[in-house]
Known about the structure:
The complex is a heterodimer. Chain A contains 7 helices and 2 strands, in the order ααααααββα. Chain A is mainly alpha-helical. Chain A has one domain. Chain A has a two-stranded parallel ribbon with strand order 1-2. The longest helix of chain A has 28 residues. By secondary structure, chain B is an alpha+beta fold. Chain B folds into 3 domains: 33 residues; 76 residues, CATH 2.40.50.140; 33 residues, no CATH class. Chain B is 37% helix and 29% strand. Chain B is built from 4 helices and 7 strands. In chain B, the strands form 2 sheets. Chain B has a 5-stranded mixed beta barrel. In chain B, a hairpin with a 4-residue loop joins strand 6 and strand 7. The chains are: A mainly alpha, B alpha+beta.
Amino acid sequence: MPDLATHLLAVTPFLKRTVRRPELVLLGAVLPDLVGRLSILLPARPFFFWADTALHTPVSAALVILGLALLFPEDRRREAILSLGFGAAFHFALDMMQMSVTFGTPWLFPLSMASFQLPLIWGDESFYALPALILINFLVFRRPLLARLRAIRRRRGA
Amino acid sequence: MSGLLSDSHRLVKIAGVAAALVIFVFYASAVGPKAYPSLDEARRDPAAFTGRMIRFGGDIVRADESDFSCRGWDGAVVTVRARIGAGQEGHWISGTALFRADGTLDALTYHVYRFRIIKNFLAVLPLLVVAWLFFRTYAFDVRTLRFRDRRGAGEDRA
Protein backbone atom coordinates (compact mmCIF):
# COMPACT_ATOMS: atom_id res chain seq x y z
CA MET A 1 0.00 0.00 0.00
CA PRO A 2 1.24 3.51 -0.69
CA ASP A 3 1.59 5.78 2.32
CA LEU A 4 -1.50 7.56 3.61
CA ALA A 5 -0.21 11.00 2.58
CA THR A 6 -0.10 9.78 -1.04
CA HIS A 7 -3.56 8.27 -0.68
CA LEU A 8 -4.98 11.57 0.56
CA LEU A 9 -3.20 13.91 -1.82
CA ALA A 10 -4.12 11.73 -4.80
CA VAL A 11 -7.83 12.08 -4.10
CA THR A 12 -7.99 15.73 -2.99
CA PRO A 13 -7.80 17.25 -6.52
CA PHE A 14 -11.07 15.47 -7.26
CA LEU A 15 -12.81 17.08 -4.28
CA LYS A 16 -13.03 20.51 -5.79
CA ARG A 17 -16.44 20.29 -7.38
CA THR A 18 -17.40 16.67 -7.55
CA VAL A 19 -18.62 15.88 -4.05
CA ARG A 20 -20.56 17.53 -1.28
CA ARG A 21 -18.93 15.61 1.55
CA PRO A 22 -15.14 15.98 1.16
CA GLU A 23 -14.49 14.88 4.76
CA LEU A 24 -16.18 11.56 4.02
CA VAL A 25 -14.25 11.08 0.77
CA LEU A 26 -11.02 11.68 2.66
CA LEU A 27 -12.09 9.25 5.38
CA GLY A 28 -12.92 6.72 2.64
CA ALA A 29 -9.47 7.24 1.13
CA VAL A 30 -7.79 6.07 4.34
CA LEU A 31 -10.51 3.68 5.52
CA PRO A 32 -9.11 0.42 4.01
CA ASP A 33 -5.84 1.04 5.83
CA LEU A 34 -7.60 2.15 9.02
CA VAL A 35 -9.42 -1.17 9.33
CA GLY A 36 -7.00 -3.33 7.35
CA ARG A 37 -3.71 -2.38 8.95
CA LEU A 38 -4.66 -2.61 12.60
CA SER A 39 -2.01 -5.27 13.23
CA ILE A 40 0.58 -2.48 13.40
CA LEU A 41 -0.88 -1.73 16.83
CA LEU A 42 -1.23 -5.38 17.85
CA PRO A 43 1.30 -8.07 18.81
CA ALA A 44 2.97 -9.65 15.76
CA ARG A 45 1.01 -12.84 15.13
CA PRO A 46 0.09 -14.63 11.88
CA PHE A 47 -3.59 -14.41 12.85
CA PHE A 48 -3.48 -10.62 12.80
CA PHE A 49 -1.66 -10.69 9.46
CA TRP A 50 -4.53 -12.66 7.96
CA ALA A 51 -7.03 -10.42 9.74
CA ASP A 52 -5.44 -7.45 8.00
CA THR A 53 -5.51 -9.30 4.69
CA ALA A 54 -9.23 -10.06 5.09
CA LEU A 55 -10.17 -6.53 6.14
CA HIS A 56 -8.11 -4.79 3.46
CA THR A 57 -10.31 -6.01 0.61
CA PRO A 58 -13.06 -4.33 -1.44
CA VAL A 59 -15.84 -6.49 0.07
CA SER A 60 -14.73 -5.78 3.64
CA ALA A 61 -14.39 -2.08 2.85
CA ALA A 62 -17.93 -2.10 1.41
CA LEU A 63 -19.23 -3.72 4.60
CA VAL A 64 -17.40 -1.21 6.80
CA ILE A 65 -18.80 1.63 4.69
CA LEU A 66 -22.30 0.19 5.02
CA GLY A 67 -21.87 -0.10 8.79
CA LEU A 68 -20.57 3.46 9.02
CA ALA A 69 -23.37 4.79 6.82
CA LEU A 70 -25.92 3.24 9.18
CA LEU A 71 -24.53 5.50 11.90
CA PHE A 72 -25.61 8.56 9.90
CA PRO A 73 -29.16 9.95 9.77
CA GLU A 74 -31.33 8.06 7.30
CA ASP A 75 -31.46 10.89 4.75
CA ARG A 76 -27.64 11.12 4.66
CA ARG A 77 -26.82 7.44 4.21
CA ARG A 78 -26.81 7.29 0.43
CA GLU A 79 -24.55 10.34 0.28
CA ALA A 80 -22.26 8.85 2.95
CA ILE A 81 -21.95 5.59 1.02
CA LEU A 82 -21.16 7.39 -2.24
CA SER A 83 -18.57 9.66 -0.63
CA LEU A 84 -16.88 6.95 1.46
CA GLY A 85 -17.06 4.55 -1.48
CA PHE A 86 -15.44 7.05 -3.86
CA GLY A 87 -12.54 7.52 -1.44
CA ALA A 88 -12.14 3.79 -0.82
CA ALA A 89 -12.26 3.01 -4.56
CA PHE A 90 -9.50 5.53 -5.10
CA HIS A 91 -7.51 3.89 -2.31
CA PHE A 92 -7.76 0.46 -3.91
CA ALA A 93 -6.95 1.87 -7.36
CA LEU A 94 -3.66 3.18 -5.96
CA ASP A 95 -3.01 -0.06 -4.08
CA MET A 96 -3.43 -1.98 -7.31
CA MET A 97 -0.47 -0.11 -8.78
CA GLN A 98 2.01 -1.32 -6.22
CA MET A 99 4.51 -4.11 -6.65
CA SER A 100 4.38 -7.11 -4.40
CA VAL A 101 6.82 -9.97 -3.97
CA THR A 102 4.47 -12.32 -2.14
CA PHE A 103 0.86 -11.45 -2.83
CA GLY A 104 -1.10 -8.23 -2.92
CA THR A 105 -4.70 -7.47 -2.09
CA PRO A 106 -6.98 -10.47 -2.69
CA TRP A 107 -9.48 -8.44 -4.71
CA LEU A 108 -12.13 -11.14 -4.91
CA PHE A 109 -11.96 -12.20 -1.25
CA PRO A 110 -13.83 -14.16 0.15
CA LEU A 111 -14.42 -15.91 -3.18
CA SER A 112 -10.73 -16.22 -3.91
CA MET A 113 -7.39 -15.45 -2.27
CA ALA A 114 -5.81 -14.76 -5.66
CA SER A 115 -4.37 -11.30 -6.14
CA PHE A 116 -3.22 -9.36 -9.15
CA GLN A 117 -1.39 -6.05 -9.35
CA LEU A 118 -0.28 -3.54 -11.97
CA PRO A 119 3.27 -3.43 -10.67
CA LEU A 120 4.38 0.20 -10.97
CA ILE A 121 5.82 1.22 -7.60
CA TRP A 122 6.94 -0.37 -4.33
CA GLY A 123 4.60 0.40 -1.46
CA ASP A 124 7.34 1.92 0.69
CA GLU A 125 8.60 4.14 -2.14
CA SER A 126 5.30 5.80 -2.97
CA PHE A 127 6.37 8.99 -1.21
CA TYR A 128 8.45 9.79 -4.30
CA ALA A 129 5.14 10.90 -5.81
CA LEU A 130 4.45 13.39 -3.00
CA PRO A 131 6.19 16.46 -4.53
CA ALA A 132 4.22 16.02 -7.76
CA LEU A 133 0.97 15.50 -5.83
CA ILE A 134 1.60 18.58 -3.69
CA LEU A 135 2.20 20.61 -6.87
CA ILE A 136 -0.98 19.27 -8.50
CA ASN A 137 -2.97 20.09 -5.37
CA PHE A 138 -1.52 23.58 -5.26
CA LEU A 139 -2.44 24.16 -8.93
CA VAL A 140 -5.98 22.88 -8.35
CA PHE A 141 -6.56 24.80 -5.13
CA ARG A 142 -4.36 27.83 -5.78
CA ARG A 143 -7.25 30.31 -6.05
CA PRO A 144 -8.95 29.50 -2.73
CA LEU A 145 -5.56 29.06 -1.06
CA LEU A 146 -4.22 32.41 -2.28
CA ALA A 147 -7.53 34.11 -1.46
CA ARG A 148 -7.34 32.79 2.09
CA LEU A 149 -3.72 33.88 2.44
CA ARG A 150 -4.65 37.36 1.19
CA ALA A 151 -7.53 37.52 3.67
CA ILE A 152 -5.22 36.57 6.55
CA ARG A 153 -2.69 39.20 5.47
CA ARG A 154 -5.46 41.81 5.21
CA ARG A 155 -6.73 40.92 8.70
CA ARG A 156 -3.22 41.26 10.14
CA GLY A 157 -2.76 44.61 8.34
CA ALA A 158 -6.05 45.98 9.62
CA MET B 1 -36.11 5.02 2.34
CA SER B 2 -36.47 1.30 2.52
CA GLY B 3 -34.30 -1.79 2.54
CA LEU B 4 -30.73 -1.96 3.63
CA LEU B 5 -30.32 1.76 4.33
CA SER B 6 -33.53 2.27 6.25
CA ASP B 7 -33.79 2.80 10.00
CA SER B 8 -35.65 -0.46 10.58
CA HIS B 9 -33.50 -2.93 12.55
CA ARG B 10 -30.58 -0.56 12.18
CA LEU B 11 -28.57 -2.00 15.06
CA VAL B 12 -29.20 -5.55 13.84
CA LYS B 13 -27.81 -4.56 10.44
CA ILE B 14 -24.72 -3.03 12.06
CA ALA B 15 -24.25 -6.18 14.15
CA GLY B 16 -24.63 -8.25 10.98
CA VAL B 17 -21.92 -6.24 9.25
CA ALA B 18 -19.61 -6.69 12.25
CA ALA B 19 -20.34 -10.42 12.36
CA ALA B 20 -19.57 -10.77 8.64
CA LEU B 21 -16.22 -9.03 9.15
CA VAL B 22 -15.36 -11.35 12.07
CA ILE B 23 -16.23 -14.37 9.90
CA PHE B 24 -14.02 -12.97 7.12
CA VAL B 25 -11.11 -12.66 9.54
CA PHE B 26 -11.40 -16.26 10.73
CA TYR B 27 -11.97 -17.51 7.18
CA ALA B 28 -8.82 -15.74 5.94
CA SER B 29 -6.78 -17.11 8.83
CA ALA B 30 -7.98 -20.60 7.86
CA VAL B 31 -7.53 -20.50 4.07
CA GLY B 32 -4.72 -17.93 3.79
CA PRO B 33 -1.89 -20.11 5.11
CA LYS B 34 -2.93 -22.85 2.68
CA ALA B 35 -2.94 -20.50 -0.32
CA TYR B 36 0.25 -18.69 0.67
CA PRO B 37 2.22 -20.84 3.13
CA SER B 38 4.86 -19.09 5.16
CA LEU B 39 7.92 -20.06 7.16
CA ASP B 40 5.64 -20.84 10.12
CA GLU B 41 3.85 -23.61 8.25
CA ALA B 42 7.13 -24.94 6.83
CA ARG B 43 8.72 -25.14 10.28
CA ARG B 44 5.75 -27.06 11.64
CA ASP B 45 6.05 -29.70 8.90
CA PRO B 46 9.53 -29.42 7.30
CA ALA B 47 9.28 -32.68 5.33
CA ALA B 48 6.11 -31.58 3.55
CA PHE B 49 7.53 -28.19 2.60
CA THR B 50 11.08 -29.13 1.54
CA GLY B 51 11.66 -27.76 -1.95
CA ARG B 52 8.38 -25.85 -1.95
CA MET B 53 7.91 -22.12 -2.32
CA ILE B 54 6.98 -20.26 0.85
CA ARG B 55 6.69 -16.65 2.02
CA PHE B 56 9.17 -15.15 4.42
CA GLY B 57 9.64 -11.77 6.02
CA GLY B 58 11.32 -10.03 8.91
CA ASP B 59 13.95 -7.62 10.12
CA ILE B 60 17.36 -8.15 8.58
CA VAL B 61 19.81 -8.90 11.39
CA ARG B 62 22.84 -9.85 9.26
CA ALA B 63 23.76 -9.37 5.61
CA ASP B 64 26.84 -10.91 3.96
CA GLU B 65 28.06 -11.41 0.41
CA SER B 66 26.05 -14.52 -0.34
CA ASP B 67 23.35 -14.68 2.30
CA PHE B 68 21.55 -12.83 5.05
CA SER B 69 19.55 -13.58 8.19
CA CYS B 70 16.23 -12.13 9.16
CA ARG B 71 14.17 -12.32 12.33
CA GLY B 72 10.52 -13.24 11.94
CA TRP B 73 7.52 -12.24 14.04
CA ASP B 74 8.27 -14.96 16.63
CA GLY B 75 11.88 -13.88 17.10
CA ALA B 76 13.28 -16.92 15.27
CA VAL B 77 16.15 -16.15 12.88
CA VAL B 78 16.35 -17.78 9.46
CA THR B 79 19.26 -17.79 7.01
CA VAL B 80 18.34 -16.91 3.42
CA ARG B 81 20.65 -17.38 0.45
CA ALA B 82 20.46 -14.22 -1.65
CA ARG B 83 22.67 -11.24 -2.41
CA ILE B 84 20.99 -8.19 -0.94
CA GLY B 85 24.20 -6.22 -0.35
CA ALA B 86 25.85 -5.05 2.83
CA GLY B 87 24.48 -2.46 5.25
CA GLN B 88 20.88 -3.62 5.11
CA GLU B 89 20.64 -4.54 8.78
CA GLY B 90 17.57 -3.12 10.49
CA HIS B 91 15.49 -2.94 7.30
CA TRP B 92 12.42 -5.08 6.76
CA ILE B 93 12.55 -7.69 4.01
CA SER B 94 9.73 -9.69 2.47
CA GLY B 95 9.81 -12.28 -0.26
CA THR B 96 9.36 -15.81 -1.49
CA ALA B 97 11.87 -18.61 -1.17
CA LEU B 98 12.37 -22.34 -1.52
CA PHE B 99 12.40 -24.09 1.85
CA ARG B 100 15.40 -26.39 2.40
CA ALA B 101 15.51 -29.49 4.59
CA ASP B 102 18.06 -27.84 6.92
CA GLY B 103 15.61 -25.00 7.64
CA THR B 104 17.38 -22.41 5.48
CA LEU B 105 15.87 -20.67 2.44
CA ASP B 106 16.87 -20.01 -1.16
CA ALA B 107 15.34 -16.66 -2.06
CA LEU B 108 13.34 -16.45 -5.27
CA THR B 109 11.95 -12.91 -5.07
CA TYR B 110 12.41 -10.32 -2.36
CA HIS B 111 12.22 -6.62 -1.61
CA VAL B 112 14.03 -4.70 1.10
CA TYR B 113 11.65 -2.09 2.50
CA ARG B 114 14.18 0.68 3.18
CA PHE B 115 11.59 3.41 3.56
CA ARG B 116 9.15 1.60 5.82
CA ILE B 117 9.78 3.99 8.73
CA ILE B 118 9.20 7.04 6.49
CA LYS B 119 6.00 5.44 5.25
CA ASN B 120 4.71 4.86 8.78
CA PHE B 121 5.70 8.39 9.75
CA LEU B 122 3.81 9.74 6.72
CA ALA B 123 0.65 8.02 8.00
CA VAL B 124 0.39 10.12 11.15
CA LEU B 125 -0.32 13.56 9.68
CA PRO B 126 -3.01 12.35 7.20
CA LEU B 127 -4.80 10.49 10.00
CA LEU B 128 -4.80 13.60 12.16
CA VAL B 129 -6.09 15.72 9.26
CA VAL B 130 -8.88 13.26 8.45
CA ALA B 131 -9.86 12.93 12.12
CA TRP B 132 -9.92 16.71 12.52
CA LEU B 133 -11.99 17.25 9.36
CA PHE B 134 -14.41 14.49 10.29
CA PHE B 135 -14.99 15.46 13.90
CA ARG B 136 -15.11 19.14 12.99
CA THR B 137 -18.08 18.26 10.79
CA TYR B 138 -19.74 15.44 12.74
CA ALA B 139 -20.36 14.68 16.37
CA PHE B 140 -21.35 11.26 17.65
CA ASP B 141 -24.55 11.28 19.67
CA VAL B 142 -24.17 8.44 22.17
CA ARG B 143 -27.87 8.59 23.08
CA THR B 144 -29.10 7.91 19.54
CA LEU B 145 -25.94 6.11 18.33
CA ARG B 146 -25.74 8.38 15.29
CA PHE B 147 -23.43 10.96 13.84
CA ARG B 148 -25.04 14.37 13.62
CA ASP B 149 -23.90 17.26 11.50
CA ARG B 150 -22.43 20.00 13.70
CA ARG B 151 -23.37 22.62 11.09
CA GLY B 152 -27.00 21.63 10.93
CA ALA B 153 -28.81 19.37 8.52
CA GLY B 154 -29.49 20.37 4.97
CA GLU B 155 -26.73 22.94 4.64
CA ASP B 156 -25.23 22.78 1.20
CA ARG B 157 -21.48 23.01 1.36
CA ALA B 158 -20.80 22.17 -2.27
